[in-house]
Amino acid sequence: MTRFESLRRFGTASAKWDGMKMKLGHEDFLPFSVADSDYSAPEEVLDALRERLEHGSLGYTMIDDAYLDAVRRWLIKRWRVEIEKDWIIPAPKVLTAMSVAIETLTRQDDAIVIQTPVYNKFAPAVTYNQRTLLKNPLHYEGGRYVMDLDDLEAHFRKGARMLLLCSPHNPVGRVWNRQELKDLLDLARRYDVYILSDEIHGDLILDNHTFTSMGHFLNDYEKLVVVTAPSKTFNIAGLHAANVIAAHEETRKAIIKDFKRLFLSGPNLLAQTAMKAAYEKGEAWLDAQMEHIENNDRILREFFKENDPKAYVLPLEGTYLSWVDLSHWNIESRTLVEKMKAYGVVVASGTLYGADGEGFIRINLGCSKEQLEEGLWRIGRFMDTLRS
Ligand SMILES: Cc1ncc(COP(=O)(O)O)c(C=O)c1O
Fold first, then answer.
1. Of 261, 281, 301, which residue constitutes the final position of a domain?
2. Is 50 part of any domain?
3. Does the global pTM surpass 0.90?
4. CATH code, domain carrying 181
5. Do 243 and 262 lie in a common domain?
6. SS3 state at 211
7. Are 368 and 6 in contact (CB under 8 A)?
8. pLDDT in tens, 278-305
9. Domain end point (choices 281, 308, 335)
10. Is 289 helix (H, G, I), strand (E, B) or coil?
């Protein structure tokens, strides 16, 4: 049985641990910020990497059939999505793929829509490419987020060329259902808008929720591109591995042409090795991980129920990132987060994901039960001082 224990990550150039240590100047904190997990990747993946290194040669590699098969089989097995192998464009990172797709499929100053609050790198992916950023804020109603398709349609009507879809959604934790996605597709089709569906969290689905990949609709809509990755699923984000799935030949060829221009290749040999092992042998580990995340989610909910009943923990449908409404404190999220640091706990301010994240914090549950409990205890001490 996998134990999902947090590893000591200081001294490993960890963006989350060492990055924060550089800012704070000490190690006396627990971070629940950057979206990777603090426990080990699956043993099956580590074994494959060890075996690959034992071989000794670290020479050039290529994307072989086994790689494409592993991706294809994973999508069938986990998402019931059937794709052709030649629809896959291996990429180093989701963000790289997204940025290239923006450059390839839209023109300078074209308007691109994001649905805030959303992963904080979506906005720069648009603006770094000199495109115009448009926001289609999600509706927060009845304690849940839904898309505002009327507002989105207004953007499309005015000529927006692309939507960056976050599915499942980081940070609000929604797993968009089939109907929501179909409605979105209908709208995009009506206005001839590209949808770039970032499905990096698509394997991290909780309880009874069912993930619908946009991959199901690739044959129905030419202007649809899906990006997947094993990085969050198996905690191998440091290796850099992603895959663009594009069914439409012209779209795919255009993206490949830009990959070539940039001499961008897919995952390197270690990333390929890890991804293949994860997709071929990592299923049981992933299922166990999701039980662990569900348990951490319960611990978090219990904590807030007992210690801060006016807080509202959003339902976590997908991802391991919990979105917590602390607006009843009437303190800016950034200030809350800064003050929490003095109590040895680092969470992400909701405003990192857009101004509409004000009042919220994001807590990463991809850690051991003990780490989470200790972090929550520290948050509890901080809240005692807010009350006094
Ligand atoms: C929705 C989303 N997309 C992309 C990324 C980053 O992916 P990559 O490291 O492959 O660029 C993240 C990381 O948190 C994410 O949450």
1. 281
2. no
3. yes
4. 3.40.640.10
5. yes
6. coil
7. yes
8. 999 999 999 999 999 999 999 999 999 9
9. 281
10. helix
